[in-house]
């Protein structure tokens, strides 16, 4: 559980219906406040949660609903004059139910002009395609847009199609369209260092080749914005060795999950997952596996 000092307002009603445009949760003091905004959600076949695991074994962990409905959480950090977003939703051209960030920003009273930075964990559609508005202009006119050089290089390489199954080609075409739309505004940074003072990009490859997670402190507590390194509130923690179909390099993703789970549980970090219901919580070691408890 988060401390009372950190947890100002969690909005129990909003947690019960996490797929609509909304403020999912707020953490931290006013001057250094984390707000988690919903970009909506989408459905996917249960079988995608773990390759090579029978669907009924997956359903025993997730519940029987097939397709499975996931949520999209965009983290927003207010820090002095800075307003920093981590990823920016799916925009208008991905799946039904997603692309609701602009509405959630309005609900939170955040003007697009006020956003100073967008830091990307990776360039999948549900994290990157929201960077352009309906007129193909950058959604936040005053923002700096920061992504890992390795991730940009992968998705924008002419040969990317040869490295992806056919059903992922639209991901590459979309990433290239958004990167073109951002043009020079999309800055290339190296994983491993601080991208902004106090905000480190931790290499967490596997889900995509250049995937990063962001580590920083808020309200005096360690926080990590995980992106898609841990995507399911039970499976990713209890069975980190299961291989979701959405992980591009499944073996690397498993190794990344194991080292992240070790770090998050040892440091009592506030973990924020893009697809975790409730978004923020703590990770506890539980026998040979781990458990996520949303705040
Ligand atoms: Zn995602």
Summarize the structure.
This protein has one domain (7-215): Metallo-beta-lactamase, Chain A, CATH 3.60.15.
- Beginning-to-end CA distance, first to last residue: 5 Å
| General shape | globular
**Uncertain segments of ≥5 residues (pLDDT<50)?**
1-19
Taking the sheet with the most strands, its summary is: 8 strands, mixed
Number of helices: 8
> Beta fraction of the residues?
25-35%
Q: Quickly count the domains.
A: 1
What does it look like?
There is one protein chain. Helices cover 23% and strands 30% of the residues. It has helices spanning 12-16, 55-62, 101-108, 125-128, 149-156, 169-182, 235-238, 250-267, and strands at 7-9, 23-27, 32-44, 68-79, 82-86, 117-119, 144-148, 186-189, 194-196, 199-203, 212-218, 221-227, 270-273, 280-286, 289-294. It contains eight helices and 15 strands. The chain has 295 residues and is an alpha+beta fold. The chain has one domain (7-215): Ribonuclease Z/Hydroxyacylglutathione hydrolase-like (Metallo-beta-lactamase, Chain A, 4-Layer Sandwich), CATH 3.60.15.10. It binds zinc ion. Zinc ion binds at residues 124, 126-127, 228, 274-275.
Identify the notable features of this structure and list them briefly:
alpha+beta, Metallo-beta-lactamase, Chain A, 8 helices, globular
Give the secondary structure arrangement, pairings included.
Blueprint: E1 7-9, H1 12-16, E2 23-27, E3 32-44, H2 55-62, E4 68-79, E5 82-86, H3 101-108, E6 117-119, H4 125-128, E7 144-148, H5 149-156, H6 169-182, E8 186-189, E9 194-196, E10 199-203, E11 212-218, E12 221-227, H7 235-238, H8 250-267, E13 270-273, E14 280-286, E15 289-294
Parallel strand pairs: 5-6, 6-7, 7-8, 12-13
Antiparallel strand pairs: 1-2, 2-3, 3-4, 4-5, 9-10, 10-11, 11-12, 13-14, 14-15
The chain binds zinc ion.
Zinc ion binds next to α4.
């Amino acid at each position: 559980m988060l401390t009372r000092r950190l947890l100002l307002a969690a909005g129990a009603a909003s947690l019960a219906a996490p797929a609509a445009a909304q403020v999912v949760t707020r953490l931290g003091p006013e001057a250094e406040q984390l707000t988690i905004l919903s970009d909506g959600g989408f459905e996917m076949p249960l079988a995608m949660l773990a390759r090579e695991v029978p669907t009924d074994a997956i359903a025993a962990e997730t519940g029987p609903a097939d397709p499975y409905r996931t949520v999209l959480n965009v983290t927003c950090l207010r820090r002095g004059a800075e307003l920093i977003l981590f990823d920016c939703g799916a925009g208008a051209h991905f799946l039904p139910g997603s692309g609701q960030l602009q509405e959630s920003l309005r609900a939170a009273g955040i003007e697009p002009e006020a956003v100073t930075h967008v830091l990307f964990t990776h360039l999948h559609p549900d994290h990157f395609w929201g960077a352009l508005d309906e007129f193909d202009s950058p959604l936040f006119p005053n923002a700096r847009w920061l992504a890992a050089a390795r991730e940009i290089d992968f998705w924008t390489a002419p040969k990317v199609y040869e490295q992806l199954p056919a059903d992922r080609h639209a991901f590459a075409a979309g990433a290239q369209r958004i990167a073109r739309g951002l043009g020079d505004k999309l800055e290339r940074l190296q994983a491993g260092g601080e991208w902004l003072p106090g905000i480190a990009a931790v290499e967490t490859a596997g889900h995509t080749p250049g995937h990063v997670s962001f580590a920083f402190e808020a309200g005096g507590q360690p926080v990590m914005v995980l992106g898609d390194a841990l995507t399911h509130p039970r499976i990713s923690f209890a069975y980190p060795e299961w291989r979701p179909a959405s992980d591009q390099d499944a073996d690397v993703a498993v190794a990344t999950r194991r080292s992240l789970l070790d770090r998050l549980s040892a440091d009592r970090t506030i973990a924020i997952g893009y697809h975790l219901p409730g978004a923020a919580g703590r990770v506890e070691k539980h026998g040979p596996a781990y458990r996520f408890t949303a705040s």
